[in-house]
Amino acid sequence: KMREYTEKKETCGTICLKYLLFIFNFFFWLAGGAVMAVGTWTLAEKSDYISLLSSSTYSATAYILVVAGVVVMYFILLLCIFLLEIIAGILAYIYYQQLSMELKQNLKNTMTQKYRQEGEESVTSAVDKLQQEFKCCGSNNYTDWADSQWIKSPEASGRKVPDSCCKTITDLCGRRDHPSNIYKESGCITKLENFIQEHLKIIGAVGISIACVQIFGMIFTCCLYKSLKPEPY
Q1: What are phi and psi of 54, to 5 degrees?
Q2: pLDDT single digits (tens) 110-147
Q3: What distance, in Å, lies between the first and last C-alpha atoms of the chain?
């Protein structure tokens, strides 16, 4: 019970932190918009009086407010992009760790239960493409197809494997499961796992790398905002 309470507390804390961050960013964004609006309003509505002043400080202050507002809003945009990239990188890393188990649990079942079934056209197309591109047959090997609902049905026309398992695809070539005809010993699970893992590495690396670069962008934006912020007189 203590563990459940702790986990629940951590979950609530995470949710609260997420919403607080969102609310803070939202109001910070509004503040940037308000600063820009005041500067624009000053230039648009009160510009007639600028010509009466010997100093350009008044107009300069208004221009600085406009630029500062843009910078603040740009900073928030950078921050949101930064957070999304960090999240993408973390999710890619987490899924990288879970991928092998997920494929072992689901790939064979997906192939045998959904291939050539009504409403599962996308799965059928993906399986055919997978087996042809990676030169493989079945999840672990060609024997997985013996459990296929479609292979067991009259619609298979005596095929032992789908035609996409064949080295050279012809109609009904899946009837013959000789090694010279199909990718008999090569399963798809390892090849698909390696393919996805490589892409997850790229996604994670790109997300984290660009996020790190954007840290400098946010620091630069903060420095720019600080330098543009008008000093009180």
Answers
A1: -80, -25
A2: 999 999 998 989 999 999 999 999 999 999 999 999 99
A3: 60
Query: For residue 176, is it within any domain?
Result: no
Phi/psi at 148 (5° precision) = -70, 135
Query: Does residue 117 fall inside a structural domain?
Result: no
Report the domain count for the chain. Answer: 1
Bridge partners, residue 166, by sequence:
182
Backbone angles phi, psi at 24, to 5 degrees: -60, -45
What is the residue range of 66's domain?
2-91+211-228
Q: Which helix (H) or strand (E) holds 89?
A: helix 57-114
Sign of CA dihedral 218, 223, 227, 231: positive
Residue of 193, 222, 230 lying closest to 72 (CA atoms)? 222
- Please indicate, yes or no, if residue 186 is contained in any of the structural domains: no
Q: CA 102, CA 128: separation in Å to the nearest integer?
A: 20
Query: Residue type for 120, please?
Result: E
pLDDT value at position 136? 92
- How many other CB atoms are found less than 10 A from the CB of residue 152? 12
pTM: 0.58
Q: How far apart are CA 94 and CA 204, in angstroms?
A: 10
Question: Is residue 98 one of the residues assigned to a domain?
Answer: no
Residue 209: CA count within 13 A, CB half-sphere: 6
